[in-house]
Request: fold
Amino acid sequence: MIIGFIGLGTMGKHAAANIWRKEFDLVIHDIRPEAAAPLVAMGATAAESPATVLDAVEVVVTMVFGPKEVEQVMRGPAGFLSGDPAGKVRIEMTTSSPFLMRELAAEFEACGGHAVDAPFTGSMDAAIWGDMPVFVGGTDAVIE
Reply:
């Protein structure tokens, strides 16, 4: 399975590296292209935008700074909703507004996609070791 990952900041770069270490193919994006370089060196594929990540994968994880960035990934000119979310699973790990998360999930699902809200808690060490507690919300079938 090919996994997409958007947001390669302090926590995201470690979470994405852990996904890659589990031997998943990884397509990545960050607004700072230099943030992708270490993961590309490991074997990940960099993509130009959130929409191009979504086009290349079945499941995409987003771990960006906050609500403004989540909205940009979804609704921006090269965001998920500018592409074709049908059949794709979006796992949102950004800690954000529950109201915004529900609104964006409804928009993604209206386009045929599946949304999972999965904010995490923990430190950078937890991200490095792949031991972040995650609170998961979504339909049972998609989560399974």
